Amino acid sequence: MDALFSPHSLSVIGYVPRKELLWLAAVFSGIVMCCAVYKITDLISLLCFNGYRKLSNMDKVEWKNRGFSTFHAIIASSASLYLLLFSDLFKEGSHNQLVINRTSTVSETILGVSIGYFLSDLAMIVWHFPALGAWEYVLHHGLSMFSIFLSLVSGQGQIYILMVLFSESTTPFVNLRWYLDIAGQKSSDLYICNGIFLFLGWLQGFFSSYSFSPICFSILTR
User: Fold this and answer.
1) Residue 71: exposed, middle, or buried by beta-carbon count in 10 A (0-12, 13-18, 19+)?
2) Shortest CA distance to 156 belongs to which of 209, 112, 200, 98?
3) Tens of pLDDT along 41-60?
4) Nearest of 66, 74, 68, 77 to residue 176 by alpha carbon
5) How would you class 209 by CB atoms within 10 Å of its CB: exposed for 0-12, middle for 13-18, buried for 19 or more?
6) If 0-12 CB within 10 Å is exposed, 13-18 middle and 19+ buried, where does residue 217 land?
7) Cα–Cα distance for residue pair 204/91, rounded to 1 Å
8) Which tens digit of pLDDT belongs to each residue from 151-206?
9) Are 114 and 168 in contact (CB under 8 A)?
10) pLDDT at 92
């Protein structure tokens, strides 16, 4: 019994690598973020939107679900944009490593938070199945989490994961379209403007990926 609680045994039992602790903390933070924004969305909606009280219970659930979906999209796309274009993480010549092998505390934190988001959203999809999404959503979230997990564990390919997360920048427009639709505002100017911005966002994302991929591949082959 004394040997079990010796300093050496305690150090071995309590040892968790710092990197894994960072991942777990980021995933947990993502889950907490989703729960908090879910509750805050409900409170703000009750205070600011008269039509919210008239929605069905399931519409209210989806309303709040899209609230933390929007919040995650803003966080993930903003962080991805910073890491891809403004930080020196993936700039040519800034590191000795190949671009595909480069990671940072910020990039791993964002990936962990995104896993937390996908876990939270998947839990709601399964709990309310199929009201919030059918099997294609389950498959999408499962593959997304698997891809992010592999990137974290291997330390490779984070540049590609961040490029995909940057495409989340169109999610707020998708969610706003749903909000306006459920509120009966499909004929409003805001609905039309949102549709234009949504189209431009998708178009920009397509051309950005199309133009960035050859550059990325040329760097990888050097």
Assistant:
1) buried
2) 98
3) 999 999 999 889 999 999 99
4) 66
5) middle
6) exposed
7) 21
8) 999 999 999 999 999 999 999 999 999 999 999 899 999 999 999 999 988 887 77
9) no
10) 83
Confidence of residue 211 (pLDDT cuts 50, 70, 90): low
Residue 208 is predicted with a pLDDT of 64
Q: Which of 155, 74, 161, 179 is nearest to 115 (CA)?
A: 161
The pLDDT score that the predictor gives to residue 202 is 84
Mark residue 189 as left, alpha or beta (left: phi above 0; alpha: psi -120 to 50; beta: remaining). Answer: alpha
Q: Which residue has the tokens 């509120």?
A: 183
Q: How deeply is 13 buried, as exposed, middle or buried, from its count of CB atoms within 10 A (0-12, 13-18, 19+)? A: exposed
The whole-angstrom separation of Cα 109 and Cα 80 is: 11
Distance CA 63, CA 178 (A): 9
How far, in Å, CA of 109 to CA of 106, rounded?
A: 5
In whole angstroms, give the CA distance from residue 176 to residue 218. Answer: 38
Which has the closest alpha carbon to 73: 189, 190, 176, 155? 176
- pLDDT tens sequence across 112-143: 999 999 999 999 999 999 999 999 999 999 99
Tokens of 124: 């709601």
How big, in percent rounded to 5, are the helix, strand and coil portions of the chain? Answer: 80, 0, 20
